[in-house]
C-alpha cells in the first residue's frame, strides 16, 4: 500500500514537471501580433556624430620624386691661337669632386684650366685692349673672386691683367705673357672674331685656360678625357652641385603649384627628412620624362641628407591655407541640398536639423565652413554617416 502511494506521488510530480516545461516552451514560441510586428520592423538608423572643430586647414598636393644632382653639362675647352704644337691632358679631377669658382678643373700641357661663372663660353684669347661681353663676363667673375679687376666695363685693361695674374699665382701657376710679335701672328684671326678689338702685349687669358658655366659650384659626374690624350670634344660632364628632386603632377595639381612654394620631403623607410623649394613647373605635360598626362616639376633641396640622391621620396606641397584656426567639419559632413547649396546636419536635443554652410579650404579630410547668420560652433555634433543596420529583429 505504501509503495503504491509513492508511485502515485512520483507520477504526479513528473506530470507537473512536464506541464511546466511545456508551458515555458509555449511562452517562447507564442507571440502576440503586436510583438511580432515590432520584431519584424526595420531597426531605427543611428547617426554617426562628430564634433565641429576649430583648426587650421591646409590644402596639400602629394607626389613622389627621385633625388638627383643638378642638370648635366659637358665641359669643353676652346683652342688658343697663342699656342702652337700639340696639347695633351696632364691632370684630371676625380668623379664626384666638387669644384667652386676659381678652381683649376684640369691641366693641359701643364697649364691650368680655370672654372669661372658665366653663360657665354670662352671662344677667343683675351688680353690688353680687347673689348666685348666676354671681357665683361670675365671682369664680373674676377670681382666675385675678390681679385679687383677695376671697372667692369668690358675693356681688358691693366687692372684686368693684374687680376688675371693674381688668379694664376694664387693657384700656383705663372700667367701667360704674350709679346707683340706673338700677337701679330694671331691678329688676323682675332679680327675675324671681333672687329676693332685688338690685343696688345701683356698678361693674357688664353681661350683654353678658362671654362665658363652658368651655375656654381659644380660636381664632376663623369670624366671623359684621358691623361695623355688631346683636349678635344667633351672632356668632363658636370652637374649643378645642388640636389634636386624631380616629380610629376596631374594637370589639376599643376595649376596649383608655383615656383617658390615650400616642399616637405620625406621617406620614413629610409630615414629621409628634408625641406625644399619648387624650382620649376613645366609649361605643358609630357616633358622632361613625364608622360602626356602629367606635368614635370623640380624641387631644390635646402640641406639634402646623403641618402637622398637616387632615392624615391614623398613630396608634400602646401598650396593653400586658412592661415588661422577656422570652423571646420569633416568633408563627409557636408552634403548637397536640393537647390544645389551646401549644408550640414546638426544634432540638437536628440533631433537632427539641416544648416546651410559655405565650404572653403579643404585638406586632411576637413573643410572650412561658414554658416550664414551663425548657428554652428565648436563642439556642436554633426552627422557624418549612419551606423550599419543589422537584420530585422536583431537576429
From TrEMBL:
It comes from the Bacteria. Residues 1-26 form the signal peptide. This is Peptidoglycan binding-like domain-containing protein. Residues 131-166 form the Peptidoglycan binding-like domain. Pfam families: PG_binding_1. InterPro entries: Peptidoglycan-bd-like, PGBD-like_sf, PGBDSf. The keyword Cytoplasm does not apply. Keywords: Signal.
Amino acid at each position: 500500500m505504501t509503495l503504491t502511494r509513492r508511485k502515485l506521488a512520483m507520477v504526479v510530480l513528473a506530470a507537473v514537471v512536464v506541464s511546466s516545461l511545456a508551458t515555458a516552451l509555449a511562452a517562447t514560441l507564442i507571440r502576440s501580433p503586436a510583438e511580432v510586428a515590432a520584431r519584424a520592423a526595420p531597426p531605427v538608423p543611428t547617426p554617426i556624430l562628430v564634433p565641429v572643430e576649430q583648426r587650421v586647414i591646409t590644402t596639400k598636393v602629394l607626389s613622389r620624386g627621385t633625388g638627383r644632382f643638378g642638370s648635366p653639362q659637358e665641359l669643353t675647352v676652346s683652342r688658343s691661337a697663342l699656342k702652337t704644337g700639340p696639347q695633351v691632358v696632364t691632370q684630371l679631377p676625380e668623379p664626384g669632386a666638387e669644384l667652386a669658382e676659381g678652381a683649376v678643373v684640369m691641366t693641359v700641357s701643364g697649364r691650368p684650366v680655370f672654372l669661372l661663372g658665366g653663360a657665354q663660353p670662352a671662344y677667343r684669347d683675351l688680353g690688353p685692349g680687347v673689348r666685348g661681353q666676354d671681357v665683361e663676363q670675365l671682369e664680373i667673375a674676377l670681382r666675385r673672386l675678390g681679385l679687383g679687376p677695376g671697372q667692369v666695363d668690358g675693356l681688358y685693361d691693366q687692372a684686368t691683367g693684374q687680376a688675371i695674374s693674381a688668379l694664376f699665382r694664387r693657384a700656383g701657376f705663372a700667367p701667360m705673357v704674350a709679346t707683340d710679335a706673338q700677337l701679330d701672328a694671331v691678329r688676323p684671326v682675332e679680327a675675324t672674331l671681333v672687329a676693332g678689338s685688338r690685343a696688345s702685349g701683356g698678361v693674357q687669358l688664353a681661350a683654353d685656360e678658362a671654362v665658363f658655366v652658368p651655375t656654381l659650384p659644380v660636381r664632376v659626374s663623369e670624366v671623359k678625357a684621358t691623361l695623355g690624350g688631346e683636349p678635344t670634344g667633351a672632356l668632363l660632364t658636370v652637374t649643378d652641385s645642388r640636389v634636386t628632386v624631380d616629380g610629376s603632377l596631374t594637370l589639376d595639381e599643376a595649376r596649383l603649384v608655383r615656383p617658390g612654394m615650400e616642399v616637405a620631403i620625406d621617406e620614413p623607410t629610409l630615414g629621409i627628412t628634408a625641406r625644399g623649394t619648387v624650382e620649376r613647373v613645366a609649361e605643358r605635360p609630357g616633358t622632361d620624362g613625364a608622360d602626356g598626362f602629367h606635368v614635370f616639376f623640380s624641387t631644390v633641396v635646402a640641406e639634402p641628407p646623403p641618402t637622398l640622391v637616387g632615392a624615391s621620396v614623398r613630396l608634400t606641397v602646401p598650396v593653400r591655407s586658412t592661415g588661422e584656426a577656422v570652423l571646420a567639419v569633416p568633408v563627409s559632413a557636408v552634403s548637397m541640398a536640393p537647390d544645389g547649396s551646401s549644408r550640414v546636419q546638426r544634432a540638437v536635443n536628440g533631433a537632427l536639423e539641416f544648416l546651410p554652410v559655405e565650404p572653403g579650404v579643404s585638406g586632411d579630410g576637413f573643410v572650412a565652413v561658414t554658416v550664414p547668420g551663425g548657428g554652428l560652433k565648436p563642439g556642436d555634433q554633426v552627422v557624418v554617416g549612419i551606423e550599419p543596420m543589422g537584420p530585422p529583429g536583431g537576429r
